[in-house]
Design goal:
Shape: globular
Distance between the termini: 15 Å
Strand content: 5-15%
CATH superfamily: P-loop containing nucleotide triphosphate hydrolases
Helix content: 25-40%
CATH architecture: 3-Layer(aba) Sandwich
Largest sheet: 8 strands, mixed
Number of strands: 8
Order of helices and strands: EHEHHHEEHEHEHEHEHHH
Radius of gyration: 19 Å
Low-confidence stretches: 54-81
Structural class: alpha/beta
Number of helices: 11
Number of domains: 1
Strand order of the largest sheet: 3-4-2-5-1-6-7-8
CATH class: Alpha Beta
Length: 283
């Protein structure tokens, strides 16, 4: 089951919204979740959970085929990495992508429940999605989908062929919108047509604004079940800066009843439920 997040606007907070909804999904339901970037070397998604210090370091090790020993490149005196997406793309046969191999090359966000696939260390050039190894991405994604209940894919505001492919294949496409009359109208009335269900998401949402969720539904005659919102929350955005979105959501959902911002909780739970209902994973 694939849920793709995308926006035609770079300021819609697509990656942030995906991270929040994915964490809420795990906290609200007994689901196993994978989060994957829709780019070759896009570390923005990782940063939401691990912070910038959690990125792949420059000097790392590569496991040799013989003896699992680390190899040193004498010419550069640097170690090269063989883990994460790069390692999975190097697998010659689909049957090599076992559950243990796939999960060993991902990073745990929430223990045994939610994993993040690290970005590639290779350069993302203009035609990166035509790289001879990246053509194997389909089978990597197929394997990940096999081992998790739902896969969230961050397409950001990308316009490349791979992002279009992901959006055309996703079971649910979450289109991220900024809370403004012109942006909402243009995006909704001229939204792309995809194979899967389409859900509209307002990020950095303020319920007391003129174009709140109820007014948007009324103005554009939008189905209530296809529009959600993530209210602006100062503590959540502070957690984002330190790569602790998962900890904030874990502590917030179901564990801080006396301290909750009720509007934030209500909208987050409602939006998460609506998106997951579109997949058929929850009733």
């Amino acid at each position: 089951m694939k849920i793709a997040f995308w926006s035609e606007n770079k300021g819609a907070g697509t990656t942030f919204n995906l991270a929040v909804i994915a964490c809420a999904s795990v906290c609200l339901y007994p689901l196993s979740v994978a989060v994957v970037s829709g780019g070759y070397r896009d570390e923005k998604l990782e940063n939401k959970f691990f912070g910038k210090t959690g990125n792949i370091p420059k000097f790392t090790t590569i496991a040799a085929d013989v003896g699992q020993e680390s190899l040193l490149a004498a010419e550069t005196e640097e170690f090269f990495i063989s883990s994460g997406l790069e390692c999975l793309l190097c697998k010659e046969k689909p049957e090599d992508l076992t559950e243990s191999v796939v999960k060993a090359n991902m990073r745990q966000v929430i223990k045994d429940r939610m994993y993040c696939l690290p970005a590639n260390v290779g350069q993302e050039y203009e035609w990166w999605y035509r790289d001879y190894r990246f053509v194997r991405m389909d089978r990597v994604m197929s394997a990940i989908e096999t081992f998790f209940d739902v896969v969230f894919i961050d397409c950001g505001s990308r316009q490349d062929d791979y992002a279009r492919k992901i959006l055309s294949e996703a079971d649910v496409c979450v289109l991220n919108i900024e809370q403004g009359a012109d942006g909402i109208g243009d995006f909704y009335l001229n939204s792309p047509q995809f194979r899967g269900e389409i859900f509209f998401l307002l990020g950095k949402y303020f319920g007391n604004a003129l174009y709140n969720r109820q007014n948007v539904q009324r103005i554009y005659r939008m189905e209530e079940s296809r529009l959600g919102a993530i209210p602006y929350n100062t503590r959540l955005h502070a957690a984002e800066q330190t790569g602790k979105i998962d900890r904030f959501i874990e502590n917030y959902v179901g564990q801080m009843a006396g301290e909750k911002d009720t509007e934030f909780e209500k909208e987050l739970v409602r939006t998460t439920n609506l998106i997951l209902k579109m997949t058929g994973l929850v009733a």
